[in-house]
Amino acid sequence: MNKIGLALSGGGVKSISQLPVIRALNEENIKIDMVSGTSMGSVIAALVSCGLTSDELTDIVLKLERNIKEKHIFSKPSLKLLPFSKEKLTGGYVDGQELEDELQKVLDEIGVHNISEVKIPLAIPAVDLTTGKIICFVSHPNEFKTLDPMWEIVTDIPLAKAVRASCSFPFVIAAMEYQGYMLVDGGVRMNLPLELVEAYGADKTIAVTMHSNESFHEYNSLMAIATRCMDLMRIEEDYHIVKKADIHINVPLDDVWVFELGKGRFTMDRADLVIEKHKDDIKALVKKKTLWERIKEELGGLS
Fold this sequence. Notes:
Elements: E1 4-8, H1 19-27, E2 34-37, H2 40-49, H3 54-70, H4 96-110, E3 122-128, E4 134-138, E5 151-154, H5 159-166, E6 176-178, E7 181-185, H6 194-199, E8 204-209, H7 222-241, E9 247-250, H8 264-275, H9 279-284, H10 291-302
Parallel strand pairs: 1-2, 1-8, 2-3, 4-5, 8-9
Antiparallel strand pairs: 3-4, 3-7, 6-7
Helix pairs in contact: 1-3, 1-8, 3-4, 4-5
């Protein structure tokens, strides 16, 4: 039986559109054997790895979105920016600790604290500003194989902290200091972490992105410019990586901004329309091949 790896890209609120993809896999009884996620995609991936049903996942993520919006976590500058504050923020005006606290509340209810406690193999990337290396937070290190000198593996970290590191969006959410690292959003170098599920030995991979071709006109907002710069880097990188995926599901969300809290349900409705076009591809992941199909595949490999 093929091992299925699911890779979820970063995209802020847009990443909530990944939930219907997981629901579609569940409906076809397709087991996710390993999962990776970057930035907001790491929130979804972390919850998937805890073994939640798609309904539980949807309820939790939409509640989390609502709580973050009501507490204005992404819209209020931290008091740590004030001159008299003993603690200082690096690389952003939002304190990522508040996001981590909200994530921890969710994980406490599930009963998961450390990344090693999840049920499904999980990998989450962040980037160390000091060395430029990709720091891979990995739940099942014995199953994770890589020789990449620009990857460093961390296996003992609170899950909420690993997700916070991957969500530390440059210029907005402050970098996170952890064990000598200065960590920022994994999307700086690996927005679509397909290689991480490959490192777990996935036979078939599913990549979920939210690329769009919208033009940009908001030059008066520092946050908008920062997100646009990240988007441009991500699109270029993801373009080459998705070619390796067995299934690539892209949900174009031109009309949703990365930090536009409250649009989660809207992104899910858009994803439902896209998924319909991929139903046959999804079903084919677990379809048993006929003897003739297997013979042709073997002969093709010999040519």
